[in-house]
Design brief:
It is a single chain. With 71 residues, this protein is mostly helical. 8% of the residues are buried. The chain has one domain. The protein contains 3 helices and 2 strands. Helices cover 39% and strands 6% of the residues. The protein starts with a helix and ends in a 19-residue tail after the last helix. The protein has a two-stranded antiparallel sheet. The longest helix has 10 residues.
Length: 71
């Protein structure tokens, strides 16, 4: 149901909870904080994030609305 302590360490590269929380927040992961300070990440969220990261990125297109002709 939740990522294990070892899985969180492997994902974030950190063993300390404070650094794990900082990494998760910086990378936009959703998590809760347990009473012990440990970040708690749902396994389903992790799988979803990791599967989506392998999807092909959307093709780049210029934002033509942002380009205005200055008279």
């Amino acid at each position: 149901m939740f990522l294990t302590a070892d899985e969180l360490a492997e994902l974030t590269g950190y063993r300390l909870h404070a650094y794990q929380r900082r990494w998760l927040a910086a990378h936009g992961w959703k998590f809760e904080v347990a009473a012990t300070g440990r970040p708690v990440v749902l396994r389903a969220h992790a799988e979803s994030r990791l599967l989506d990261s392998h999807a092909a990125p959307a093709p780049w297109a210029p934002n033509l609305a942002a380009i205005r002709k200055v008279a």
